[in-house]
Design a protein that fits this description.
The protein is α+β, with helices and mostly antiparallel strands. A nine-stranded antiparallel β-sheet has the order 10-6-2-3-4-18-17-16-11. A hairpin with a 2-residue loop joins strand 2 and strand 3. The longest helix has 12 residues. The protein is elongated.
């Protein structure tokens, strides 16, 4: 089996597929790429035990068809060094010897029988097929991934919940300290359903889906989902379980309204956090009609900080505590110059949203408060 391929194109697709390959695998065969030649196309497959990804590369002067597995780390390293030139692969499918020729030399190494590579399972008979706009998927994942939990004790919280309704598409994530809802109202999927997309697969999609590209074609059954976009196909095992009813979590009667510049508030929180307790990251917010007085202290090191930020507040004067780390994450992921914070009392969560929402989008972020000891 022999073929020519652009070094740059091959490197791009190898790097994309490598995103789903773990650094350590229980099955050693998963340390490899599976290369398969059919006609004038090279299919590159990689995966772990939860995800399988395939990328396509156009090849020239193909002679023969077949497949071989090659150690991913080695192939990435050698292609990187010669990616600026055409490459010629000459593969002996009987001996598994691989010869990679370039302008001034060649590499020789061994591959593995491609038949040993695990095959992707077919979807169940009840699988549904639909398409979603590429920009909606990217925006939704970018707006929620930061709040996904890393705590594997509750697996359902380690992914992004995708709630599909006939007239809207909603992405939800939570680590139990903060909850994010990214609702897209100008998309009409025309069907109902939901699934929990694992964080790893969500990150791959966020990084590879072209926002300006064609709609992403999705095939989903009760166990897995396949996303087809551009020259890529990603199949992931969905997270089992029932996601908490996020609609009930958001309070509907937070009567007090605080409007403040997002950037000034974010920068002030970062500065005060330098002197807050490293154990709790607690910052105290004393809110008046036109001013927020922030304070943080670390009794163990006898350090403290205070800072004032101008605001427009309509409500009863209040002192409420928030975790500075979570506050920075929330404010960093809100778009716009000003943020609106809806409050009720110091024991109830605050609702954060951009003062001016993007067209067709509704973003709301909930953050749990912390107890402030006067």
């Amino acid at each position: 089996m022999r073929f020519n391929v652009s070094g740059k194109a091959l490197q791009t697709q190898l790097q994309a597929v490598s995103k789903v390959i773990n650094s350590k695998n229980a099955l050693s065969i998963l340390d490899n790429f599976l290369l398969r030649v059919e006609g004038d196309t090279l299919y590159i497959t990689g995966g772990d035990q939860e995800n399988v990804m395939t990328a396509e590369v156009v090849i020239n002067d193909a002679d023969g068809e077949g497949e071989i597995a090659i150690l991913a780390k080695r192939l990435l390293e050698v292609v990187k060094e010669v990616s600026n030139q055409p490459l010629v692969f000459d593969i002996n499918l009987d001996t598994k010897e691989v010869k990679l020729s370039f302008t001034n030399g060649q590499f020789n190494f061994m591959g593995i029988d491609g038949s040993e590579y695990p095959r992707k399972k077919n979807h169940e008979d009840d699988a549904v097929e639909f398409a979603l706009p590429a920009n909606a998927i990217v925006d939704g994942l970018e707006g929620t991934l930061f709040a996904v939990s890393n705590d594997t004790i509750r697996p359902i919280m380690t992914g992004v919940f995708v709630d599909i309704e006939p007239e809207r598409l909603t992405f939800v994530s939570s680590d139990t300290h903060k909850l994010v809802k990214f609702q897209i109202n100008n998309v009409a999927p025309g069907l109902e359903g939901n699934f929990i997309l694992p964080g790893k697969a969500a990150n791959v999609l966020k990084g590879l889906v072209d926002k300006e590209g064609d709609p992403v074609k999705i095939t989903k059954d009760s166990k897995s989902a396949t996303f087809n976009f551009g020259t890529y196909s990603l199949t992931t095992r969905l997270i089992k379980g029932t996601y908490p009813n996020y609609k009930r979590v958001f309070p509907k009667d937070n009567p007090f309204r605080l409007v403040v510049g997002r950037e000034p508030l974010l920068n002030a929180v970062r500065r005060v956090a330098l002197f807050a307790s490293k154990a709790s990251n607690l910052i105290r917010f004393s809110i008046e009609a036109t001013e927020i007085q922030m304070g943080g202290q670390d009794l163990d090191y006898s350090t403290s900080a205070e800072e004032r930020v101008d605001c427009d507040y309509k409500g009863n004067p209040m002192t409420i505590g928030f975790n500075s780390t979570y506050m920075v994450e929330v404010l960093s992921n809100i778009k716009g110059d000003d943020v609106e914070i809806q409050l009720a009392d110091p024991a109830r969560p605050g609702l954060f949203s951009p003062l001016e929402q993007q067209e067709g989008v509704e973003v709301v972020m909930l953050q749990m408060p912390m107890q402030v000891i006067e």
